[in-house]
Amino acid sequence: MNKIKIERQDPDNFNQFIELTEEEIREMARENAMAGREIQIGDVVQIDPRLHPKFAACFAIVEEVRNWGVIAYVPIPDKEAGTIAPVRLEWKDCAPIGVAVWTEALE
What we know:
Layout: E1 3-7, E2 17-21, H1 22-34, E3 43-47, E4 59-65, E5 69-75, E6 84-90, E7 94-99
Antiparallel strand pairs: 1-2, 3-4, 3-7, 4-5, 5-6
């Protein structure tokens, strides 16, 4: 896997670079998003495309929070109003995005 060179902001050494794989960068971003935040019902999570290719990077709305992860749904466009695809996601398979303002499809 290719490594990406990233400049690290260090007050003692401005020219310090670290090399990370794309997977390491994604994991760091997921951990930062999760830091100090608990996912709740109505939150939006993004699905990891590597683990769920059918829902590659889709956003899902959380319906239930479990100790192993969440039960969520992905709204399906171009279908009858209210059509959803349910999905079970372990914590490692999703990252929080924010809170859904509208959680029900308009008719």
